[in-house]
Design a protein that fits this description.
mainly alpha; 3 strands
């Protein structure tokens, strides 16, 4: 044994070499799919044109086909029938810019996975009976 190493005293545990303290690993952020992968490289919707205030509802159950991409299943889960959500709200909830979201939803609509309806027209918003029903339903909440 080399002479410069300290010898343990009887009844004392041997000293261990101190290891440098490593900082705890930083949590990794979840991987996000690149936008061009979500839209298959498309820059325009082939058949369905959607606006930011179009209401989207799921036409199928999000768990019905596990072969769908994760983002598609997320959209279906966020848009249960009959209420659905607006395109802009979906984009905000999924942290995707509006243009790629409309392309993604256009693809889903073309495949029959979602239903879409335009926002209410001006004439429909002046319907007094509709406005009273909305008021009464809000009062019940």
């Amino acid at each position: 044994m080399p002479d410069d190493e300290p010898q343990p005293q009887p009844g004392q545990p041997p000293q261990e070499a101190e290891e440098p303290v490593q900082p705890p690993p930083r949590p990794r952020s979840p991987r996000r799919t690149r936008l061009y992968a979500l839209t298959d490289g498309r820059t325009a919707a082939p058949c369905t044109a959607l606006t930011m205030d179009t209401t989207i509802t799921a036409a199928v159950d999000p768990d019905a086909d596990s072969g769908l991409p994760t983002e598609w299943r997320t959209v279906l889960a966020l848009c249960p029938a009959p209420d659905g959500r607006a395109v802009a709200e979906l984009a905000a909830r999924m942290h995707i810019r509006l243009t790629p979201m409309t392309l993604l939803l256009g693809e889903l609509a073309d495949r029959g996975l979602i239903h879409h309806r335009p926002p209410l027209e001006g004439a429909e918003t002046t319907n007094v009976h509709l406005l009273r029903r909305i008021r009464d339903n809000l009062a019940r909440i």
